[in-house]
Amino acid sequence: MKKTKTLKIMYIVAIVVIIAGIVATCVWKTNFSLLYDEHKRIDVYLGKDYNIEDIKQITSDVFAGEKVVIQEIETFHDSLAINVKQVNDEQLNSLKEKIKTKYEIEEIDDAIVSTTIPHYRIRNIIKPYIIPMLITTLIILAYVAIRYLNLGMFKVVFTLLLRLIVLEAVFVSIIEIVRIPVGVYTIPFGILVYILVTILTVVGYENEITKRKEKEKKK
Amino acid sequence: MKKNKLVKLLTILIIISICFISFAGIWIKKQGQMKNVLPDYILGMNISGTRTAKFNVSDETEEIIYDAEGNVTTEGTNEDGSLKEGYTKEDKKVNSEEVLTQNNYETVKKVMEKRLENIGVSEYVIRLNNQNGEIILELPENSNTDEIISNLTYLGKFEIKDSQTDEVLINNNDVKQASAVYGSTNSGTAVYLSIEFNKEGKEKLENITKTYISSTDEDGNKTTKNISIELDEETMLETYFSETISNGILQLTIGSASTSNEEIASYIKQANQVAGLIDGGVMPIHYELEQNNYMSAPAFEMIEKVVLGIIFAVVLIGFIYWIIRYKANGIFATISYIGWLAITLLVIRYANVSISLETILAIITLLICNYLILQYTLKQFTKKGESKNGIINKTYKRYASIFAPIAILSVVFTFINWLSISSIGMVLFWGMTILTVYDYIVMKILFEIKEVKK
Lengths: 219, 454
Prior knowledge:
A: Beta Polymerase, domain 2, 4-stranded antiparallel beta sheet, 7 helices, B: alpha+beta, Multidrug efflux transporter AcrB transmembrane fold, Alpha-Beta Plaits, 4 domains, elongated
């Protein structure tokens, strides 16, 4: 009785979170991580060895308070890419000036090139995972239906499916509400949630079977 | 009793040795340098870096010469390079303003994606700038990357033309699919580009093979009607047909080799590339490669380091709990847990599994699974009235059911042609397999029922 009540409360909380998630999605745009969102990539060709700490210092001066991701271009350690959300002329000129002074580059306009990197679409992130996840879910549901036939085939299948849908929806909603940046970790974490929900549900089924067996033994 | 202790000691020594080998490697001096004998981990795109190519809409112009009647001609110049009388010349952009639409940009992106899939690229990121059509492609760095990138600038326009009149007899619209095939011949293995045509194309091909033949008239004069097979207006082959093709499949020999596997592989690669171009569709816009650089992956950020630190701390707390709660069995469980991780990482090295951020999360899943199974066993070992074998069998029976969904996921994912997905599958598969065998052996040898019962 107590368990059913807790379960009900959990489902109500989940529904509230999902509704809040839907509202958040409608109100705000999904927050993407810098490299997944549309951003500016400033390629800097120094032609000489550089110290990453110096570059970090320069970028933190120029793009104060903004998120900056630095990547190395090629493997010669003489050129790099600075990724930032936006860059205005003032910032670009300041960056050029600082790099020119630090690394004594004469043709600074040729050495620094800015490119707009388009955003990576959610559907492109999800697409490769749709078919494998569908196949996996179908096989797992079939397995659960057969393995826990004694607990009621439809009950076990429905419970697992419901939990998977609800908890994945909660996971997405939390991302939207808390504005966690969607990026390289989003899908793997989604899969981790999927695995954990499946395992915990199956553990529940196993415990229920054990309890039933113990009851039968006592009788 | 003594024998039992000796076996335990030996097992622990073996586990510790495996840990050293897996985590530190086996270093030997080779040509004056210390080298690790173990194969390196294969790192995925989001850990090692990517080849990043930028494709721009071409703004090049081409020279078009018209004859006196206004028809386009390729033979409009004199020997000295000047125009023939009455002929006119025009510089025309390869991409007219009308083709530069968002729809066409999307089509180009889709064609590129299809080509990448056709040639078996198992991981990539493609981004399109809808405003100017710029395409940024990120690929894993390997020996094929340059070739793959160079293939993407082709339009993919496949045509079979009349050699004399330049009349287009068949084009991409008539093609159902193209693929590379190979078969044995008297001289060795021959590699073909096989082009299968759709219903309309099949009829057209049959007519072509009846028309474009070599024939001899009553006077013994031989006449040959040739076709030219072109890709992006470059002639691949000029030929005629000696027999009618009515099955709608045209096979073009790419090459043959008697013994060299490398040569055969190279022909197959060529055939696959051309097939990929034909099969991928035609790009409505000319593109050119503007940038092609290797970009390293960004360094781990503070938040990622903190998360890894938390995971490490949780595992450590788990070990401390085991040791305090289950004494000797807890110590053995800790050692075996680290040993299992070492073996799994060793197998990942040898199984050529690519390590990416996605696979790290698969490893975390495995860490949780192994913790659950060992924790359950340790708890069972504290209960009175059960034999060691009974506990182990009970644990395995329970967890076989619980972990079956992970086994299903690992097998399905392993067979998916997308590197980060198949890597998750392979890591889970190897991790679960090792866990099943290794935990059984370790539990049998190391765990002791009496010690906890005291």
